[in-house]
Write a structure and sequence with these properties.
Blueprint lengths: L16 E6 L7 H14 L3 E5 L2 H7 L4 E3 L27 H13 L4 E6 L1 H12 L1 H10 L5 H6 L4 E6 L15 H22 L1 E7 L6 H10 L3 E3 L9 H14 L5 E6 L12 H12 L2 E6 L11 H20 L7 E6 L2 E6 H16 L3 H7 L2 H14 L11 E7 L6 H14 L3 E5 L2 H6 L3 E3 L18 E2 L7 H10 L4 E6 L1 H12 L10 E6 L15 H22 L2 E7 L6 H10 L3 E3 L7 H14 L6 E7 L8 H11 L5 E6 L3 H4 L14 H4 L1 H9 L22 E7 L13 E2 L2 E2 L1 H4 E2 L2 E2 L18 E6 L28
Parallel strand pairs: 1-2, 1-4, 4-5, 5-10, 6-8, 6-9, 7-8, 12-13, 12-15, 12-16, 16-17, 17-22, 18-20, 18-21, 19-20
Antiparallel strand pairs: 2-3, 10-11, 13-14, 22-27, 23-24, 25-26
Cofactor: Mg(2+)
GO molecular function, one term: identical protein binding
Protein name: 6-phosphofructokinase
């Protein structure tokens, strides 16, 4: 959805009624979608009805269809499942059942229906829409409604949201619930890994997904599984020998465990199911390994939704309301999807038909085509998995060498990116070095050549195994150049935050004095602050948001007993308000104060007054987020004193400074000096970016040292960008030779303007786009800023804080 002026939408829904229901299997994030549809509908002036128990409630009517108000969906964003219930309804599959459903909608004036469910639920909604006119005619002939009523409500508009943990719906990159299901799987894998290492066991994990292997594929990629079975890519004949050979080889090189992940719909080339029990018996019989089977089952549907699912659902819910308001009698039923990083509306039945084509391709054993039909993201993940897990080490060595180092504060995903880069380089025959302690370590010659198995087990480790410092290279230039020459390094891969970006620019600026620096230099953004110019998403920021979100959930829960309490929570991020903004949306905060959105004492006063009014309602709690450097004078202590004084006698106030919890948090585990990663930074993000550098040919045009010359393509940042045409500039640039001064591009280590800031106010739009390489010194004229393409505002006024 493009940014819009929400003030102009306040009355666009007047006189209209919207019904929302959830159907089919539940998925985490459905409640966030219901909440967004309800509050956006109320905001635009429409009546919103919650339809309980899915299509069954629609058919039965009565108390199953209730008009909602603003408070009806309060405090549900963090809940799993669906609070309005879901049920499979045989009655709705009959003409009589759909006629009863039509009568119940007409009685309440509902002609707009938002359906949250899988392809079966959405197909049923489309059939209902196509029959709507004839159903009303039958109701008129039966005398249940008048002809005038039938004319008034002659058209039914449908907007679908795909709620399914399987991510098996074509047309959308992610479905509601998929990311949360991956969190549950990774929690189990992390827990199993410790016991497997203790007893040198092999674990066979069966995950859900029906006939789609997305959950199995991404969890295998994120956990570094030894073997994977998915229905879209059955193993070749004789796979039993290959698998056992690989498991034995892994053990012979010192590994104490093996992980095999199998999708519940896995088959072989002949269409015969491959069961977890069969795989377990095979390993025991062939290798004699102590092997266990774990079938995850419905645990994958449970638990709280992740930050990604909360924001994705909120975004899609808002877009669904807009689609219903803009629909005409000629508009086909649509489904709101995520494409690249934009919410888009696609024809519902075209997407359903494409989804059926995938199954048809698998039935006809056109497996390569089935993978392509799943989409570019699925295909890319599959290729990365094959590269990192099954590609053999090249026997032919090249004379190309690569050095990898971490710079800045630790961030989740750093170790995953290092592992991916190391193995990608070695697989191509390159020499790979790792540098300890960043640029300072490079100056002190803390350089070590690594092998394939040196990075085994790094994937799920938090922090930085190499060590990382904020030191910039400017004061160590001579020694850095000397060690680059000593080890004959032809490329530098720098993984880190803003300091990594600035450090590479300093090296680029010094190329005129040192020919050794005329090599490829690449930055992979990795910082919880998400403040690196040119990228929408940095490794570690997703994990940090989830850490802050879980902490805020617990803080909100503590207020359920005390009542009349306001919490002021301070997040990290320096001058970049990404963490505060996105966390505020994910937890339904009352306000988020960030440096990029200036505020004054009048704004604070208005917020306190709003909080006072809020305490008169059923919701007697408040949550205010503050970025750590949002204002020089309005500190966390100042806000506490202000809220405490002005709210005296109405509410009390408490403060929480999350601090390094955002760096050391993990999925299900607390690890000192680092964090367990969420699936996003463990998986495709780190892998895709790390291998991108290796596409640079080691032979290029003649230049310094016979490898690379001083061109834009030798200084790049691997960005997670919008995939759209550039929208805004970072700011004024100042040339230093042929390079811009990073200090002129960015203010307070945060690029301006920020992509996540509000353009008009309202709710969140989260973009998760495609990887793209950009010249580091040309970012100022290409892409706006970090922040996930997100525009958001946590408002205090009723209707302003939509989520």
């Amino acid at each position: 959805m493009a940014s819009v002026d929400l003030e102009k939408l306040r009355t666009t829904g007047a006189g209209k009624a919207i019904g929302v229901l959830t159907s089919g299997g539940d998925a985490q994030g459905m409640n966030a979608a219901v909440r967004a549809v309800t509050r956006m509908g109320i905001y635009v002036g429409a009546k919103v009805f919650l339809i309980y128990e899915g299509y069954e409630g629609l058919v039965e009517g009565g108390e199953n269809i209730k008009q909602a108000n603003w408070l009806s969906v309060s405090n549900i964003i963090q809940l799993g499942g669906t609070v309005i219930g879901s049920a499979r309804c045989k009655a709705f599959t009959t003409r009589e059942g759909r006629r009863a459903a039509a009568y119940n909608l007409v009685q309440r004036g509902i002609t707009n229906l938002c359906v949250i469910g899988g392809d079966g639920s959405l197909t049923g909604a489309n059939i209902f829409r196509s029959e709507w006119g004839s159903l009303l005619e039958e109701l008129v002939s039966e005398g249940k409604i008048s002809e005038g009523t039938a004319q008034t409500y002659s058209h039914l508009n449908i907007a679908g949201l795909v709620g399914s943990i399987d991510n098996d719906f074509c047309g959308t990159d992610m479905t509601i619930g998929t990311d949360s299901a991956l969190h549950r799987i990774m929690e189990v894998i992390d827990a199993i890994t410790t016991t497997a290492q203790s007893h040198q066991r092999t674990f066979v994990l069966e995950v859900m997904g029906r006939h789609c292997g997305y959950l199995a594929l991404v969890s295998a990629l994120a956990s570094g599984a030894d073997w994977l079975f998915i229905p879209e890519a059955p193993p070749e004949d004789g796979w039993e020998n290959f698998m056992c050979e690989r498991l034995g080889e892994t053990r012979s090189r010192g590994s104490r465990l093996n992980i095999i992940i199998i999708a519940e719909g896995a088959i072989d080339r002949n269409g015969k199911p491959i069961s977890s029990r069969y795989v377990k018996d095979l390993v025991v019989r062939r290798l004699g390994f102590d092997t266990r089977v774990t079938v995850l089952g419905h645990v994958q549907r449970g638990g709280t939704p992740s930050a990604f699912d909360r924001i994705l659902s909120s975004k899609m819910g808002m877009e669904a309301v807009m689609a219903l308001l803009e629909a005409t009698p000629d508009t086909p039923a649509c489904v709101v999807s995520l494409s690249g990083n934009q919410s888009v509306r696609l024809p519902l039945m075209e997407c359903v038909q494409m989804t059926k084509e995938v199954q048809k391709a698998m039935d006809e054993k056109r497996f390569d085509e089935a993978i392509q039909l799943r989409g570019g993201s699925f295909e890319n993940n599959w290729n990365i998995y094959k590269l990192l897990s099954h590609q053999k080490i090249s026997k032919e060595k090249t004379n190309f060498s690569l050095a990898i180092l971490n710079v800045g504060a630790p961030a989740a995903g750093m170790n995953a990116a290092v592992r991916s880069a190391v193995r990608s380089g070695i697989s191509q025959g390159h020499t790979v070095y790792v540098v300890h302690d960043g640029f300072e370590g490079l100056a002190k010659n803390q350089v070590q050549e690594v092998s394939w198995h040196d990075v085994a087990g790094w994937l799920g480790r938090g922090g930085s195994m190499l060590g990382t410092k904020r030191t910039l290279p400017k004061g160590y230039m001579e020694k850095i150049v000397e060690n680059i020459r000593l080890h004959n390094i032809h490329a530098l891969l720098v993984i880190g935050g803003f300091e990594a970006y600035e450090g590479v620019l300093q090296l680029v600026e010094a190329r005129g004095r040192y020919e050794e620096l005329c090599i490829v230099m690449c930055v992979i953004p990795a910082t919880i602050s998400n403040n690196v110019p040119g990228t929408d998403f940095s490794l570690g920021s997703d994990t940090a948001v989830n850490a802050a979100m879980e902490s805020c959930d617990r803080i909100k829960q503590s207020a359920s007993g005390t009542k009349r309490r306001v919490f002021i929570v301070e997040t990290m991020g320096g001058y970049c308000g990404y963490l505060a903004t996105v966390t505020g949306i994910a937890v339904g905060a009352d306000a988020a104060y960030v440096f990029e959105d200036p505020f004054n004492i009048q704004d604070l006063k208005a917020n306190v007054e709003h909080m006072t009014e809020k305490m008169k309602t059923e919701i007697q709690r408040g949550l205010v987020l503050r970025n750590e450097k949002c204002h020089e004078h309005y500190t966390t202590e100042f806000l506490y004193n202000l809220y405490s004084s002005e709210g005296k006698g109405v509410f009390d106030c408490r403060t929480n400074v999350l601090g390094h919890l955002q760096q050391v948090w993990g999925v299900g585990t607390w690890i000192p000096e680092g964090c367990s990663l969420t699936p996003v930074p463990r998986g495709p993000g780190g892998c895709s970016r790390a291998r991108t550098l290796l596409h640079a040919p080691p032979h290029g045009a003649p230049g310094c040292r016979g490898y690379f010359i001083h061109t834009p393509l030798t200084r790049v940042l691997i960005a997670h960008c919008t995939g759209r045409r550039p929208r805004l500039c970072l700011g004024e640039t100042h040339a230093v030779g042929s390079q811009p001064d990073v200090r002129a591009v960015c203010t307070h280590k945060a690029p301006l303007p920020q992509g996540f800031l509000p353009t008009s106010g309202g709710t969140c739009l989260l973009d998760a786009g495609a990887h793209r390489s950009l010249p580091v010194d040309e970012l100022a004229t290409h892409y706006p800023a970090s922040g996930g393409g997100l525009w958001a505002k946590c408002g205090m006024e009723k209707g302003a804080g939509l989520l």
